[in-house]
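Dear colleague,

Thank you for sharing your sequence with our group. We've completed the structure prediction you requested, and as agreed, I am returning the results in plain text so they can be pasted directly into your records. Please verify that the sequence below matches your submission; if there's any discrepancy, let me know and we will rerun it promptly.
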Amino acid sequence: MSSAFTNAFQIDPHYTTIILVTVSAFIVLRKNATVKVLDILVPFMAVCYFLMTIFIIIKNAALLPAVFTQIFSEAFGLRQAAAGGIGAVIMNGAKRGLFSNEAGSGSAPCAAAAADIDHPAKEGLLQALGVFIDTIVICSCSAMIMLLAPAKLTNGLQGMDLLQTAMKHHLGDFGVIFIAAILWLFSFSTFIGILFYARSNVAYLFGDNWLSQTLYKVLALVMLYIGGLATYAFVWDIGDFGVGLMTIFNMIALFPLAPQAIQSLKDYERRRS
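Please find the predicted structure tokens below.
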């Protein structure tokens, strides 16, 4: 996000990060404010990003055959296999997939468990729909935006520089500003959403008291400041390590719980039939 604001408005990352930490502190340190903010932010940002992508796809419809040819050739790893790099491609795809939807990493159930729903299998199916929206819809939007831009403009770029360069090609300076704004919403909602996940875990480990609940939020705000100023590769490496550990431990718990999950699904299907 700090990189996006630098590209769009030439704002120093220090100022962007300080403002983000201040706004985050105002929300997360208030009781019950997090969920109310997410209820508004998440649908709004997803719909805006999706509609903008549809506009860009329609605008560049003539390029779609070439883009899909590139997608399928890269997906099946023909070039990578020839170069011996197919393993690295699969590993990178798995890591980014975990980041986009967190399926199997054990964080999203913290939100699912708080839902008011009449059957656990129904919530599980809703979580599966969330994986589809996160990865297939939203991430595909980003892919189409970048692939529809000329390769000579995007070669050698990564991260936010890549996406904003592609958007500038499609929509001019407005595209750069739009990505900065939408990324602010995505990043901000992710951060406060993760804090909501952590709340129940902190309560379980240290008790649901003011001290423990405030200390973990303050620690998260400190990490937010560090993340806003750290290099792109460092942030991803830390994230890969953390999500990888979460997934390993969570999978150990998932296998013994699998029979109960299957039984719940069968019970839900039996009630619907």
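Summary note from our side: The two ends are 47 Å apart (CA to CA).

Kind regards,
the structure core
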